[in-house]
Structure of C3H1-type domain-containing protein:
Amino acid sequence: MQQIRMADAVKYEISVKNTFLEFHEVQEEPLSMRKSQSCGSIKLGSGLSNVPSTVEDCQASEEGHLPLVGQDAEICNVKECKPCVYFMSQHGCDRSPCGFCHLQHASSKTRRPRKKQRDSFKA
């Protein structure tokens, strides 16, 4: 008996013409690599134990809000958290217990200081 591996499997499109079945091989484009702002499950560490495991638990939490995880939840609920600058950078934060919040925040745009004020900072 011949075994077919999933990597070797080919997808076909089937069409019917005058009671005949025609099989056309479907050419799929390979998936391209993309940069992602998510950290994946590796950097989350032990904070996953606080995430609700069932749909009922998730619905029982606040309506429309996902439950927050770990230390970040306690700090963000008080609204006194300081976002980790390195977490959203290209390389990410290597130190998960760095003391800063790793949740996405609405960025508060600060105005650029005027030239006179910038020059005073340099001096």
